[in-house]
Amino acid sequence: MSLKRVITFAVALLASLGLVAATSLVILTTYLHRATLSMQAAVQGIQVAQDFEVTLLNLHRLQGSLRRGEAVTVSTIEEAERHLSDQLERTRRQAQSEEERELVTQVDKAFSLYLDAQGRSLEVPAGQMSTELNHRLENTLSAINQLIVLNIQEARVEQSRVDRWDQMADLAGLGVAVLLVLGVVVLLVWMQRAVFHPLLGISRAMRRFGSRGERIQAPMEGAEELRDMARTFNEMADSLLNQRQARLTFLAGVAHDLRNPLSALKMSAALVTSRGPVSEERLRKTMALVSRQVSRLDRMVGDLLDSTRIEAGRFELKLEERDAGELATSVVELYRSSGAAHELRLLLPDGPLPLRCDPTRVEQVLNNLVSNALKYSREGSVVDVEVRREGEEVWLSVRDQGIGISAEELRHLFTPFQRTGSAREKAPGVGIGLSVARRIVEAHGGRIEVESSPGRGSTFRVRLPRSPSVSAPREARPGPFAPDPVFS
C-alpha cells in the first residue's frame, strides 16, 4: 500500500469528518435558534394572554364597583379597556399557527360581546345584567384559557423537538469523536507497522553497512515508497560491494600482470649481468624478451593512464585528416612483423576512406582489438581486419576464430576492470582495454558493436562517421559504462 495514498485518504477522511461536524453544528445552531424564538414567542403569548385575563378581571371588578356607586372614575375604566385592546392586538401579532389565530379571533369576538353587554348594563338595573355579564366574561376567559393552553402545548412540542435534536447532536458528536479516535488509532498502528518499523530496519541496515561494509539487505516491507527506498538501498549496497570487489580484483590482476613481466625483466637482467660468458644469440633473445615485456608494461600503464584521464574528463583528441585504410595497414603490419603465430588478413576498399580523427587513438583501438583477437584465438587460426564504407560511416572490423563470448558475458564486456571467466583463463589482463577503446570511439562520435558466440569466434566492429563530427579537439567526458549494442 502506498504511503501517499494512505495519508491522502486519512487527511480526506479527517477533513470529511470535520466538514460533517461543522455542517451539523451549523444546522443544529440554526434550528436551536429558531426553536428558541418559537418558544420565546409561545411564552410571550402565554404571558400576554395571562395579562389580558388579569386586566379583564380587573375591568369587570371596576365596572361592578361603578354600578354599585363606589368611587370609580370612567376614565379608569376606559384606560383599562384600551389596555385590553392593546394586549389583544399584541396577542394577534404573536399568533404563529392558524389554530392560534382562530382562537385569538374567538377571544376578540367574546371580548366584544362582553363589552357590548357591559355597555348595556349601565342602563339596566344591576340584577338584570349580572347573569349575562358573567356568561360573557366566562366565554371570554374560556377563549383566553384555550389560547394559553394552545401556547403551552406548542411550547412543549417545540421543547420535545429541541430535546430530540439535542440527543441527536450528542449521538452525532459521540460518533464523530469515536470515528476520529478509531481513525487515529488505526493510522498509528498502520504507521507503526508499515512506516516506523521498515524505517528502523532500513536505518539499521545503513548503519551496519557503513560500519562493517558487509553485504546487508534492508527489509523490503511496509509502504510502497519504503519498499522502493529499501530496494534502492539494496541495489546501491550491492553496487558498492561489487565495485569494491572489482577494485580488489583489479588490484590483484594488476599485481599479477606486473609481476610476470617484472620477473622476466629481473631474470633477463640477472642473465646479462652474470659473470659467465653470454653468447650473442642468447643476448639477442634476452633483449627481445626485455623489449616485449617493456612494451607490455608500457601498454598496461598507458591503458591505466587513459582510463584515469577519461574518468577525470581530461582525455583530449588531436584531430587530423587520415586514411582509414592506412591506419589499419600500419596496425596489421606491426603484428605481422612481430612473427605472430596467426594468419592476419587485411581487406581494404578500392580507394581511400578519409577520416577526421586522432590517428594515434584510432590505432590504439585497432591495436587493442587485434591484440585480443590474437590472444584469444588458437595458433594458426585466421584473423581478418576489414575496412569498408557503409553509407556515411567507415567500418573497421576485426574478426577472429577464438573462444567467443557468451550472451551473459557480453553484458559486461565493456565494463572496466571486469573480465569474463574464459578470458581470465586464456590470457592475463586487467580488463580496461575494451572500455578505453569504447570511450575513444565514442569521443570520435562513433560506436563499437560486437557479435559473438562461445566456440565460434567474435567480430568487433568500429563505426566512425566519414563527415567531420567535430571541428576542434574535444574531450572525452566520463559517463556510465553500459554494454554496447550487440548485433547478430
TrEMBL record:
Domain (HAMP): residue spans on this chain: 193-245
Name of the featured protein: histidine kinase
Keyword field contains Kinase: yes
Any one GO CC term of the record: membrane
This enzyme's EC code(s): 2.7.13.3
Predominant localisation class: membrane
GO MF terms, alphabetically ordered: phosphorelay sensor kinase activity
Pfam families: HAMP, HATPase_c, HisKA
Source organism superkingdom: Bacteria
Species whose genome carries this gene: Cystobacter ferrugineus
Subcellular location: Membrane
Kinase recorded as keyword: yes
Region entry Disordered, spans: 449-488
InterPro entries membership: HAMP_dom, HATPase_C_sf, HATPase_dom, His_kinase_dom, HisK_dim/P_dom, HisK_dim/P_sf, Sensor_HK_Regulatory, Sig_transdc_His_kin-like_C
Keywords, comma-separated and alphabetical: Kinase, Membrane, Phosphoprotein, Transferase, Transmembrane, Transmembrane helix, Two-component regulatory system
Histidine kinase domain mapped to chain residues: 253-468
Catalytic activity of the protein: ATP + protein L-histidine = ADP + protein N-phospho-L-histidine
